[in-house]
Amino acid sequence: MISRVPIFAVAPMIDWTDRHCRYFHRQISRNALLYTEMVVADAIIHGPRERLLSFDAVEHPVALQLGGSDPAKLAEAVLIAAPYGYDEINLNVGCPSDRVQSGTFGACLMLTPETVAACVKAMKAVADRPVTVKCRIGVDEQDPEAALPDLLDRVVDAGADAVWIHARKAWLKGLSPKENREIPPLDYEIVYRMKRARPDVFIGINGGIQTLDEAAAHLNHIDGIMLGRAAYQNAAVLADVDQRFYGAAAQEADWGAIRDRMMAYAERHIESGGRMQQVARHMVGLFTGLPGARRYRQILSTDAVKTGAGPEVIAAAFAAVDFEGAREAVGA
Fold first, then answer.
1. Which of 87, 147, 254, 260 is an S-S bond match for 61, by CB 3.0 to 4.6 Å?
2. Which residues are part of a known binding site for FMN?
């Protein structure tokens, strides 16, 4: 999984990148690395494992992101997750939310790099897949020029196979999670410097990347790029990923086929006791900016929540879109 081949990933996002979202994204890109939401190690150990860990085989390659700060619990979670067949296990050292801080993990772990290293070492000892870390460049009053290289060296020495760096500080006090994604200034250069100093370490970059052109430019400096909100809020951007980053033959997205596959998936989900809205909510931003997109959003947002709503909601939404405009938007 972790190699010198440029990697394009969709970032782990709490409340967004669940299994329905990942199934949808996989219909648009065959190769993009997809991440779960962060799953807390304690929840895997004591909670509903099947609901938390199961996924459709079509989602591969897919990575499990874990949250935690206890090496033994994280190792136990890795062992529990092993039969599910994830392609990578990632440790969250970047989420700044209050509920993460209260558990003493996420971005606040930047303050205790020795703990992060111990967690990575414990996870590596039991994992049969690559173990990676996703972090910030620092938190609060930390000097990133000192804190980031210290963390990198410790986790690499502990066996981390790759590090994804969100190129912003996280402010644990005074900023909301949303503000932490927007207000702290981006510093791509420090990530580039970390890579130059560690040519044999896979380092990927995350934060503020809006287009595939921007993503491609980052690959002149680092090994992988990760899009978050830009990929979620307009998933059509994923349609050009396979050709641009993985050498696939150029071809237009077959939106009709994607529609049909999502209708079939939604039908299976409903038959198993799920609700249409759980699938449809991730599809709302697909055709942002195109003629008919407003009506598309309205149908998915309002009709999918109605009692008895089924796959026909997806058909009706797609029927409202100008697909000629969608073809022109691919890769934008």
1. 87
2. 65, 134, 166, 206-208, 228-229
